[in-house]
Design a protein that fits this description.
By secondary structure, the chain is mainly alpha-helical. Helices cover 58% and strands 6% of the residues. A hairpin with a 3-residue loop joins strand 1 and strand 2.
């Protein structure tokens, strides 16, 4: 789509308008968000459009659209999809060797699990290796309740953090301010960073990682603006 507007404004109620006409989601709902800060940030994405709209350059708009069109109609189903990550969280599965990698995983992951134990009164069963180990039913239920309690906007913003990082526990720690975005990113990439140190970094892998980081950061920023 070519740019057809001159002015972008934030309307009363935190909707975004182009030349006075309200922006709508792909599902034709009004693009309205709960905070002025998020509305202004989305408006800046529209102001930054040059000649043609590039959705990749408008991640906050995309997340807001997803929250309104995809999550809000059935938030329970969307929340259940994210909660499923708690059944096989990255933080549960530890290396069997070498000792240096084991130590790095412990340093990055154990504080997050310790936080979740205290925050949600749950127990985890970490395992050496990659074979699935079922976690306690009470733990899965409690993590699921924490996700189900979130509104559609927070569910949409949390989604890239969970799916890119592979950890529901780490994402919840970020959401509740128990860890910052850089710490969560490093925790999610302990194994990848180790492999890169041993064998070198592949150019295509580095480009893919950069793209993932942009999506991750968009989710983090979106949550921070709510």
């Amino acid at each position: 789509m070519k740019r057809f507007w001159k002015e972008v404004t934030v309307e009363p109620g935190n909707g975004i308008a182009l030349d006075g006409k309200p922006v709508r989601t792909p599902g034709r709902s009004a693009l309205v968000v709960p905070t002025r800060a998020l509305a202004e940030a989305i408006a800046e994405e529209w102001r930054a459009v040059d000649e043609t709209i590039d959705p990749r350059a408008m991640p906050l708009t995309g997340l807001a659209n997803a929250a309104i069109d995809r999550v809000a109609p059935d938030p329970a189903a969307f929340a259940a999809g994210l909660a499923a990550y708690g059944e096989s969280d990255l933080l549960y599965y530890r290396a069997e060797d070498p000792p240096e990698l084991i130590a790095r995983q412990r340093a990055a992951w154990d504080p997050l699990l310790d936080w979740a134990r205290g925050r949600y009164d749950v127990h985890f069963e970490p395992v050496a290796g990659v074979m699935h180990r079922a976690q306690p039913e009470a733990t899965i239920a409690r993590l699921g309740e924490a996700v189900a309690a979130l509104d559609p906007l927070r569910l949409a913003g949390l989604s890239p953090v969970v799916t890119i990082g592979g950890s529901l526990v780490a994402a919840l720690a970020l959401l509740e301010g128990a860890a910052d975005a850089d710490a969560i990113w490093r925790a999610a990439h302990v194994d990848e960073d180790w492999q890169a140190e041993q064998w070198g970094e592949d150019l295509l892998a580095a480009q893919a990682r950069e793209s993932r980081r942009a999506d991750f950061d968009a989710g983090v920023r979106f949550l921070g603006l709510l």
